[in-house]
Design brief:
9 helices; mainly alpha; elongated; 186 residues
């Protein structure tokens, strides 16, 4: 016979015999192809569709998680489509929570979430706040120009109260009126 031809594969399929070229090999080939499109040709659309095809073909394979991560990465770093990237990362965390990929993107998602919350807090604060009349524009600029002492804080270890306390501290850091209260109280 001709065991290695596609006819043989087709015959096996019809007879209910699993073809010799396993799904895993097929996924591996597709994955390599998708990577090549991305890395060698910067053909983002084709790479994205190939990675997506892998996820559809076998969501349980390790290539599915790898592919989702690659999709997120392309949106994040090459296409700079933050929403699509975060959507993809969110999917990894929800569907593959036990993987290293999920752990990696979780940090990113948390950071984005924090940034979003900080921005909203800041906006609310600015809407309700009226600048003290004796704080000149130059003083505010000067205060904002002061480099902050930033230290890496691991918020994932904090409980709710500690986190709020940390946020409060972070927010007062960049507010010149809170930093130099003596200006207001004359």
């Amino acid at each position: 016979g001709y065991p290695d031809t596609e006819y043989a594969d087709e015959a096996r399929k019809r007879l209910g015999i699993i073809p010799e070229k396993s799904l895993d090999e097929e996924l591996f080939g597709l994955f390599q192809d998708a990577e090549k499109q991305y890395l060698d040709y910067q053909n983002y659309d084709l790479a994205l569709s190939k990675f997506a095809q892998i996820v559809d073909m076998n969501p349980l394979s390790t290539y599915a998680t790898k592919s989702l991560y690659a999709i997120g990465w392309i949106y994040d770093n090459s296409l700079h489509d933050n929403d699509k990237a975060m959507e993809t990362y969110q999917r990894i965390v929800e569907e593959y929570p036990e993987t290293d990929y999920a752990r990696q993107v979780k940090k990113k998602l948390d950071a984005v979430e924090r940034a979003k919350n900080d921005a909203e807090q800041e906006k609310k604060k600015q809407e309700t706040e009226v600048a003290a009349p004796d704080t000149s524009f130059e003083e505010i600029q000067l205060a904002e120009a002061q480099p902050e002492e930033t230290e890496e804080v691991d918020v994932s270890e904090m409980d709710k109260e500690a986190y709020y306390e940390y946020l409060r501290k972070e927010m007062t850091k960049s507010n010149p009126r809170l930093k130099y209260p003596e200006r207001i109280i004359k």
